[in-house]
Specification:
Blueprint (H helix, E strand, L loop, with lengths): L1 H34 L6 E17 L4 E5 L4 E6 L6 E2 L4 E5 L2 H36 L5 H33 L2 E3 L4 E6 L6 E2 L7 E6 L4 E8 L11 E6 L2 E20 L2 E10 L12 E16 L6 E2 L9 E2 L1
Helix pairs in contact: 2-3
Length: 317
């Protein structure tokens, strides 16, 4: 009788345990079904990139400080800040009275030396004719030849002085060496400029079509940067518009900013016609390292590591 009771109790406990486990399993299955998120596998391009900050800078030769090689008073200034100028356009003029007087003096000196040269040549021709007729001594012929040579030298010197005076007079008219926008004006009308030791700056021209991005790449990422890699960057004023570019240079010398080692990576781009970029704008740059086109894509949380997997590729969805 006791054995029958014990058997009934054991069977009851087993049945209760089985029912409890079934109920718990079903409840968990229902909870999992309620928390399950369905994601559709799609195809798109996957890009691996390095993100960095940068600054827009003019290229070499895109920013020119235009000055004068002549000294004098600024008579006219034809441009203001923000004006667009073309290559060869007249920017300013100096007072030319003093240099014009010097050129006139050089012209007179050249004419005087030319007259002296003509007389010396004629005298030399007469002395040679008389020497052939045995009328004059050889010493007089030598003096005539020397006088002619000196006159020729003086004529060449006067010609050089005239060319120098003409060149200095030409420096009084300042022309634009490049096309661009006037970014600053350093001299005003009526001011006196002295070009004794250095050419004074009149205006600064900037070609906005020749800009580049100097990107500051962290030392942990610079090893993956290569010439020719594609890059995209944005600026705050056009936050929703990505500009396309390409890596054209990597500076070997590091720059330390806020105790962080960075390497300057130059990104060259072609500015679009409908948007104007300016120097010193801050940029957010993404340099493309690798691209996989038309790849199968799903959320990362859907991929889990297999139980007991050793290799990195042992994953399941």
């Amino acid at each position: 009788m006791r054995r029958l009771v014990v058997a009934i109790v054991v069977i009851g406990i087993a049945a209760f345990s089985v029912a409890f486990i079934r109920r718990a399993t079903e409840k968990r299955r229902q909870e999992d079904a309620g928390n399950t998120q369905v994601a559709r596998v799609t195809r798109r391009d996957i890009v691996s990139a390095v993100k960095a900050t940068g600054v827009i800078k003019p290229m070499i030769g895109a920013e020119v400080r235009v000055g004068s090689r002549a000294s004098g008073v600024v008579r006219r200034l034809y441009v203001r800040v923000g004006d667009k100028v073309q290559k060869g356009q007249l920017l300013a003029e100096l007072d030319v009275r003093e240099l014009s007087a010097r050129r006139a003096a050089a012209v007179a000196a050249l004419e005087r030396s030319q007259a002296n040269l003509n007389y010396a040549r004629a005298d030399l021709a007469r002395k040679r004719a008389l020497e052939n007729a045995r009328v004059v001594a050889m010493s007089e012929l030598d003096l005539a030849q020397q006088a002619c040579a000196v006159a020729e030298q003086q004529s060449r010197e006067a010609q050089a002085n005239l060319e120098d005076a003409s060149t200095q007079l030409g420096y009084t008219r300042i022309f634009a060496p490049i096309a661009g926008i006037v970014s600053s004006v350093s001299t005003q009308e009526g001011e006196t400029v002295a070009a004794t030791f250095a050419a004074p700056t009149f205006v600064t021209l900037l070609d906005l079509s020749r800009l580049e991005v100097r990107t500051y790449v962290d030392e942990t990422d610079i090893g993956r940067i290569r010439l020719g890699q594609k890059a995209r960057f944005t600026v705050d004023t056009y936050g929703d518009y990505p500009f396309e570019g390409q890596v054209t240079a990597i500076y070997p010398q590091a720059e330390i900013r806020d105790n962080v080692v960075n390497y300057v990576t130059v990104v060259k781009f072609k500015p679009p016609g409908d948007r104007i970029l300016r120097p010193e704008m801050t940029t957010t740059v993404r340099i493309e390292l690798a691209r996989h086109e038309n790849a199968l894509v799903l959320p990362a949380r859907a991929v889990r590591r297999l139980h007991g997997a050793v290799r990195p590729g042992d994953r399941q969805v």
